[in-house]
Amino acid sequence: xxNTKILVSSLLLLGATSxxxxxxxSPLSYGVKSRGMGGVSIAAPLGAESGLxxxxxxxxxxxxxxxxxxxxxxxDMTLSGYPVSTDTENTYSPYxxxxxxxxxxxxxxxxxxxxxxxxxxxxxxxxxxxxxxxxKDRFVIPMSYALNNFSFGxxxxxxxxxxxxxxxxxxxxxxxxxxxxxxGLAYNxxxxxxxxxxxxxxxxEHKLAFDGYINSPxxxxxxxxxxxAHSAHTVGVDYKRIFSSELVQGASVNITKDQDVYAIAxxxxxxxxxxxxxxxxxxxxxxxxxxxxVLNIIFPFSTTSHYTVGGSYTFSNAFSAxxxxxxxxxxxxxxxFDGLIGDYREIESNPLSISLGFNYxx
Length: 362
Fold this sequence. Notes:
This protein has helices at 4-20, 22-25, 32-35, 122-125, 289-298; strands at 65-74, 77-79, 87-88, 91-101, 106-120, 131-147, 150-166, 171-189, 194-201, 204-206, 213-216, 219-227, 233-242, 248-249, 259-270, 273-282, 305-314, 319-333, 346-349, 352-361.
C-alpha cells in the first residue's frame, strides 16, 4: 500500500490527540455516578468523585469518603467497503479518589486515574508489525473551602503521558510527565436547592519528540443542579468549552478544533437506591473530514452522542455501590482518505462501556 509511512504518522498522532482530548480518552468522566448522568458533574455533588470534576463540590461532603471505580469499554466499529478492520483491544479505566474533612469548612482529597489504549493495524495494512499503546495517568490533589453559600476549590494535577509504537519492526517509546491545575466555584441557593458551578482546567504540555507538542487541552465549564424541593427528583445541566485546538502545537498540519459539550441529566432518589439517566452531545474534534475518518478507525470510542443510565444502592450508612452504562453512536460517510486506506464509504461506531463503583464513608 502506498504512502504507508504517512498513514502510520497520521494514525499515531490522531490516536495520541484522541487520548488527550478529555471527551475522547474518557467519554463523559471517570466518576461512575457522573457517567450515569451523561457526564453532568460541574454543579452536582456526587461524593468523593466530585474531586475529579469540580473540587469546590468537596465542601458538600459531610464526612470522609473513599471511592473506587472501574470502567470497561468495548468498541464496535464497522468500516464499510474494506475487507478488514483494526484490532482495537477492549480497555479498562480505573480510578481511586478520597475526601478528608479536616475542618467544618475545609476539605482535601486525593485521586488517581489510569487509561490505556492499544491498537493493532497489522491486518489493515497487511504488515507483520504496526501496533501502538498509549497511556495516560493522572494524580490529582483537590481542596475546597466553604464560606456561607459559596465554595471555592483548587486542584494540583500531575499527568504522565506515554506512547509506545512499532511502525518499522522496532518499538519506539515517548513519555512526558507534567503539571497542571484546576479551579472551581460553587454557589448554593439553599432556599430553592439550586447549585451553580464553574470549573476551569489548565492546559498541560507534553513535549514529546514527535510531530509537534501534544497537550492536554484547557477547558472551562458551567453547570446547574436543581434538587426539586420536597421531592426525590433532581435535574442537572452542564456546558463545557474544550480548547482542543491546543491539542497539537508545532505540527506540520493543524488537525483539531475547539469542542462544545452539552449534557443533561435526571436522577430519582428513593432512600436506599437512586436511578439516573442522561444524554451528552460533543461537537466534532477534527478540522478535516478525512482526519475524522482516521479518528473513527483508531479510536472508535470518540463519538458525538452518548446515552447513559445508572444507579446506586446504599447497603449501610458507610457502604454503597454505583453502576453506569454508556452507549454511544456515530455514523459518518467519507471519501477515500488520500488513497491510503482504500475506497471505503462509511464508518459506524457504536461503543459500549460499563462502570462499577464502590464508596465507603467514615
